[in-house]
Amino acid sequence: MQQSSQTEQETNSQSSPAEAPASPGLWKLFTVALRLGLTSFGGPAAHLGYFRQEYVVRRRWIDERTYADLVALCQFLPGPASSQVGMGIGLLRGGIAGALTAWLGFTLPSVLALTLFAFAVQGGAAASSPWLHGLKLVAVAVVAQAVIGMGAKLAPDRSRRTLALLAAAAALLWQAPYSQVALIAAAGLFGLWAFRSGGAQQEAPASLHIPVSRRAGAVSLGLFFVLLIGLPWLRTAVDNPSLALFDIMYRAGSLVFGGGHVVLPLLDRELVPGGWMNSETFLAGYGAAQAVPGPLFTFASYLGAAAMGWQGAVVATLAIFLPAFLLILGALPFWADLRTSPRAQGALAGINAAVVGILLAAWYQPIWMTAVLRPADFAAAALLYGMLEFWKLPPWVVVIAGALLGSGLGYLPGA
Fold it and tell me: For this UniProt entry, which segments traverse the membrane (predicted)?
């Protein structure tokens, strides 16, 4: 049963019950993703910690190895890595409709919040609120738990732990837009050599059903490149503000590695000199984007609303996330073969160790550096970690506790 024919693997249209666990259903996918979208503060690294806790540990919708492989794949791709991981999990459990449903649930809260903010206020004072500082401390706890949990499984021996530490050091010392991709590629090449004779084969990856054919994947990748090349040309031929905004956001989502913070200067260069908005309006939205959960790429929703109202918010949101959807849909059908190849297993062992190191680096900077500013912050973060790891409280409870702790810390002397 595990060794299915190549034809079956090509289409991935049929699978035995053992190979394809029953889908949780689109409504369940949506409600779980929506809860994550309402409570996932702290940026991409924290999102991956929340996702692991919800999808791997609590619900067991995918196993640890599959999750780590998916994270590694999304780190290779341009765009919002945490959103792509969510889309990938939705795709694995519910097909294309599942990917769209998981994305909608995770993204909708911050889209609505930032769109309303664009209409309601001119400044970003919420970014300095004490309760927001408490949410940053939640991110410290969540990512620490993810680093420890993933490290135990994906860096179980001295060589891979060393590789993870080297990746962490390199990620902290070399902070360029393409540094994460380069580190992961280097770790993959090292793993191909170092772990080719058993280091990566301590356990076989779980059987994986991908409900998308290779042909559909190839079409998706082709459409990604057609839009990337064709939209700038079409924009010059057709004078339409919505098309121009779509082109700006699509290129931003297609060409940026390293998460939402990296996309900000690119959008600033496109929108402020182009007369879409002034610098004060742009920066006000950036401040507000730090105060909402979910992906930072929803900053595009604010920019679209500020430039063109509700229509602009919809256009900008769809355009900036469309490349991520096309890329994950195009890559996953071919990823199934790679992750079961003996040679690829060695590379994945190295890549997974590097992912642990990169997550460790992100835990220190920017999460730790911006959240733990005094002993009371460390005490609160340790308490929140205990709530997650020892008391096994659900993340949304810890988020509420973190906001309350942050508000309380605001009354301490020197706050």
Answer: 96-119, 131-151, 163-195, 215-236, 248-267, 287-305, 312-335, 347-364, 394-412
